[in-house]
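Supplementary notes for students who missed Thursday's class. We covered one full example, reproduced here. Read the sequence, then the structure, then the short commentary at the end.
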Amino acid sequence: MNSETNSDNNEGEMYLAEGKARLFDKLALNILYAKQTEGFSSLSSSKLNGQEKFSGKLEYLINDNGKIGVAYFEQDSDNEKLSITNLGGTWANEYLDIKLEYQYQDTNDILIREWNYFDVTPKAKELLGTKIGLQFGKWGNIYLGGQYTVNGLENDQLFLGGVFEVNNKYYLGFEERWGDIGEATTVNITKKETEKESNSLSFTQNRIGIGGSNFAIDFYRTYKESPLNELTFSSGIMVDDSGNRMTQTIRKSNYINEKLRWGIGYDNTSFEDNIVSSSVSREAANVWYWFKENEFKNKGKIEWREDLLMENIKSRVVYLEESIEFNVYGFNFSGKGGVGYAEYPEENIDRFDFTNIFAGLSYRPVYYPELNILGKYVYLTDLYPESRVNAFIEDSEYKKTIYTFGFVWDLCRWIEIKESIAFRNLEEKVGARDFQESEVYLWINGLTINTWKDIKITAEYRKLENLTFKDSESGYLLEILFPIKKVLYIGVGYNFTSFDDDLINEDEYDVKGPYLRLVGVY
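Structure (token representation):
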């Protein structure tokens, strides 16, 4: 959650998924997806607040020395969108490495000022770049490179850098850049990692024509008492003409035995904005634990946060999260719940509470393992007090209950069928209006064909029906699933319908088109 978030929006959600796979011994695939809505979340972060990010990279290994690849990055929020596509190739041996890259970027002009806050340099729409590096044995390397603007904002650059080993204990790195939009100098020193600790310190100064000059200092240290007992400390400061940002982070994990672990965390972030003469900050602390006993797993976390604006406390938040998982007589049960409470001292009558409860059940009969029965229950609330007096028309409260039941049946080694039905009851209140109730059904039936090397081809027919408003939509989905692990797949597909198959999400009817996702199977 960003410290500047409007106090009227008190509950949010955070999703994060990532995966890596090597396909056919030649293809390497990496993907990452993150989404965070405005408001409070157990995983919220000031950098991700109100944003959705996706990145993927696919590389083909030609031989031991060469590879080619394509990478894609997309960031989307309410008022900005950025996408970057890279095509490139590298060749390297013991003494020389060469890289050639083409980049296409699509973005809004509004990002240019924000870039200067987050160390992202404005780039042209299309760029060509190359880099040549020389390796001098074990003691160091130097590199020389540049980029040429094909289309868009002029951003031609030259850069020279290197990394050298010092006294057999440290690595000293430097880089100098010259270009159309300014110059930059970076110096960093890293102590060689040992079994006990790792340390790094970096300094960066940018002399940018668009946003003036700025500099940043970052320090990172991890101390290991044992392989599973770690203490990590990091600190950073960034200063430019518009203000400065400071962060401090402490993480401590403790290994008690094979059954029990626990840890603590602390974060402090502050931002001084010279343009609007304001300062915002967040302070947060948490305690977590992890427990496992045979087929039973349990983990939980309690977190406290305090946000300030101009040294005045804007909000205090306490969030409690618990999850359990166990397996008994063929039944696999998993559940996750979170309860939060938010307080705004400047508005004494204003209190908020929110609840997130998830429970899932899967059952595969011992004497008929071809059948897998699945069930899920979700209960979410985001409520304001009855005494609330500063409700705006766009503010909403809700109570959301979702029931899902289905099964997967292996007809034979090659064919699976899937049936699923979900029901959602939503009570929503906007502004000063009364709660409005709506009921929605989602029916999915699918056919999956298992092919070569466990690759799956899936076709689904979906129907979404709103009983309250007498409305319905239906259509098809096609997907190919590539295995990463035994229970985890990467899915590439096309959704011919405009609606989402997750009734937790808002009904925005805008998800038609191609997609890439991670899929877990039971």
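Commentary. The two ends are 33 Å apart (CA to CA). The longest strand covers residues 312-328. If anything here is unclear, bring it to office hours.
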